[in-house]
Predict the structure.
Amino acid sequence: MFIEKGGFISLVSKFAFVCLAPMTGMLLARKGLSAEVGNETGRKVTVLNPEGKRPPIALVPMAPRLETLMRKTVYFVDVRFMNGDVLLKEMQKVFVERYPGVKTEFRRKRGQYTEDDPKLWAEIKEKGGVMVMAIGH
């Protein structure tokens, strides 16, 4: 890389070296390579891929679809995330109106939305229930 002495060209060249060297290294590193980038002064920088190796993803299939909701319990589970309870209660009202043979339950999950609630999950599983959960974002 050529850097002129002083002035705007030098500033732009230094900026380009700082910006382009990592990008060049990233492109090479993504293919399992590293890059060594330098200028006419002999100063070199080795650029490696900072992403590391991602773990393999285990795919989990969706639950099988039920043939009917009749005589089932639909749990509307609030995970305490930004007014999710308002949405779930409205959904529960719609289910009560449209599906009279379906029992509905509104529950608040224990703890924050990232915490586990084994007792609630066991209850839903034991009763053969169906769950609707409103998760934000």
